[in-house]
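Project standup — Tuesday

K.O.: blocked on the structure for the chain from last sprint. Re-posting the sequence here as requested.
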Amino acid sequence: MTASKERIAAILAKHKAKNPSNKPVKQSRAEVKVDNILDELSYPALDSNSADVSTSFLDTPTDHSIPINLVTLAEGEIDPRLKLMSHSSRTTMHKCPRKNQLYRLGSSKIALADEKETEQGVTFAYGHAVGTGVAAALEYTTNPDRVIIETFLAWDTDLLEATPRQNKSYWLAQFAVEKFMNLLECGFLDDYELVYYQGKPAIELSFCIKMPDGFYYRGFVDAVLKHKVTGEIMVLENKTSSGTANSAMYKNSGQAVGYSVVLDIIFPELSSYLVLYLVYETKSYDYVELPFRKSLLQRALWLQELLIDVERIKLYESFNTHPMHGEACFDFFRECEYLSLCTMSTENLSRNAPLTQEIVDKIDRELANYQFHVDFYDLVESQIDKGNS
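H.V.: unblocked you, prediction finished:
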């Protein structure tokens, strides 16, 4: 600090030498601001000939570092970020286990974000905005302005960003939502009513399954509807596609089977239900309806597959190797973000996002935020009971 004082004193002396007549010199904004700060701190006048300058608190070194509490895992213990499963993470792992590993270990998003797909970029922002708008249209049927606002707030990237080749932008997302509102006005879903659970509409319901060995599977249900006459339960799943919607893309999707977790709680006696995939084609500007019925058998297979994926991750960790699938290096019309990096050391690649106590605490907080919590073994027991009835 002494050197700084001497430098400032020298500058003032030089400035004074340029003005020997001692006429007032107009100060710049920066000089005035510095003078004001020094006055507030009662900083002594700087005199190059003075040897006695009082000490300011600015002379005392201060540690401004923020402590980071790193978590050291025991030998054989799996990073808790890898134990967070969802439909999207399972899909990524099936395509390329190595990509899934690096994404989970290097991401600051922990629990809710990845499932709702709020990553940056027009593709994910578009799907998220349309999905939010459709859900809002079901809830606020008589308040179109509220629907527009909800859609706008759901757009989580630059408002002017767009992908013309895929016909995706904020304005086109708004158009897709308004088109869904027009469908409702023309009688679409008139035979169904929105289900309410504990006084709230069954929209964007979140659920979490506690799997063996500290694993968790998380998901969201877009909307649950009930037929006004037959009482049939239908899950509405909104999707967007830049291509042509084909039933084979959704028929055997495990995501729809996972919705039975929520339906088990709302309707304990339910054994089968209908899933309506409502796919908005961005290039044709049309909605395509793809209905599928889900049964107990499909859920039994899905539960087995969840357990297999848990064991698969444990196996990868035991070998300290998550396999690379080269055929997945080019997907969704672009190169993988880890291309040419995935052969490097995992420790070096994940160094920017080490496991800290803050991350562990965040995982616990966000897991507690899910609306429905179910134990895997309770699901198995419920499956057996329904199969025997």
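K.O.: great, moving the ticket to review. Confidence is low (pLDDT under 50) at residues 28-34, 40-48, 110-119. Residues 19 and 25 are 8 Å apart (CA to CA).
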